[in-house]
Design goal:
The chain has 315 residues and is an alpha+beta fold. It is built from four helices and twelve strands; from the N terminus they run αββββαββββαββαββ. A hairpin with a 2-residue loop joins strand 6 and strand 7.
């Protein structure tokens, strides 16, 4: 074999070896940026949007989901993956919650749970339930949380005459429940027909509880809804007011029956306007007749007007 051919083969061998060596050697560090790490999962915890005092009903706008910091969470915290905010709607706050505080099951009492009504009441107050109907309960427009006046209507005997009287015995009483419902309907239920309740539970003081127990057997109790704008204003005049039947109509009050043993035609105590007494003489017989003249109506507290009965007669 010629010497030149051998040299060519040797050179070709080293060239192929050099190419393979460069190919197999590890490459230097890459100048491309490493891909970013995957984002960590975000933990959202159910918290109070604003301050919630003891006894407050939890509504949808009282709760909000808030991003929580890293680290292990207490087992009773409600997260977006372990619970729903709607589970707490209608519950009553058991301990004060500040804005941003996590809402947990131990902080509230849900409807149907033991102690729910006791949690609704303010310290020292009582719960009293009365029967209502569409007329006495404002046709179902009263909702838990509203304030109402309690009105008693009854029939009484005054000077032997049956009288009708209505009086406001309580002002600004809070409704804490209607039948077994303790919270107002939400937006989804607001389009449904109103269910007229049959009972209303009132939040009252111990003395007011005794009053409700008495008047509940005296006549018909009605609820008068207070204005929402004035519910935060303390009732300035909490006195009892009355309206008699003679104030509600333009008819004169009836004349009471004459006392036992009175002369024929004599009238008993007057309840309304003046009475004219006329003596009529026919031949040898004399008779007396009384005519009630419509006058000023009874005062708001039922006191009869001053005596303005004229004297004299006719023959």
């Amino acid at each position: 074999m010629p010497r030149r051919l051998i040299l060519i083969l040797i050179a070709l061998f080293f060239s192929v070896g050099a190419v393979m060596l460069v190919t197999l050697l590890p490459r230097g560090p890459s100048h491309r940026a490493a891909p970013p790490p995957p984002p960590r999962p975000v933990t959202r915890v159910l918290v109070a949007r604003a301050n919630l005092p003891v006894g407050a009903f939890v509504q949808a706008n009282d709760l909000v989901w808030q991003t929580w910091g890293e680290g292990a969470l207490p087992a009773d915290y409600v997260t977006s993956t372990t619970g729903r905010a709607s589970d707490f709607y209608g519950a009553v706050v058991r301990v004060p919650l500040a804005a941003g505080d996590p809402v947990v099951a131990a902080h509230v009492v849900k409807p149907g749970e033991r102690g729910f009504m006791a949690a609704v009441l303010q310290p020292g107050d009582r719960a009293m339930t009365i029967n209502i109907n569409p007329a006495t309960g404002d046709a179902g427009f009263i909702q838990p949380g509203d304030r109402v006046d309690l009105i008693l209507t009854q029939t009484v005997q005054q000077n032997g005459v049956s009288r009708h009287v209505s009086e406001t015995v309580m002002h600004g009483v809070k409704i804490v429940g209607l039948d077994q419902k303790f919270n107002s309907p939400d937006a989804a239920d607001s389009k449904k027909p109103l269910d007229v309740p049959r009972t209303a539970t009132l939040e009252v003081t111990p003395k007011q509880a005794e009053i409700v127990a008495v008047v509940n057997d005296m006549g018909v109790l009605s609820l008068a809804l207070n204005s929402l704008a004035g519910q935060d204003v303390e009732e300035a005049d909490a006195s009892v007011t009355r309206t008699w039947d003679t104030e509600a109509t333009h008819l004169p009050p009836p004349t009471p029956a004459a006392p036992s043993g009175a002369p024929a035609g004599a009238a008993g105590p007057r309840l309304g306007g003046p009475v004219w007494t006329v003596q009529v003489v026919r031949g040898g017989q004399t008779s007396q007749s009384n005519f009630l003249i419509p006058g000023p109506r009874m005062s708001r507290f039922g006191a009869p007007p001053p005596d303005r009965t004229p004297s004299g007669g006719a023959s």
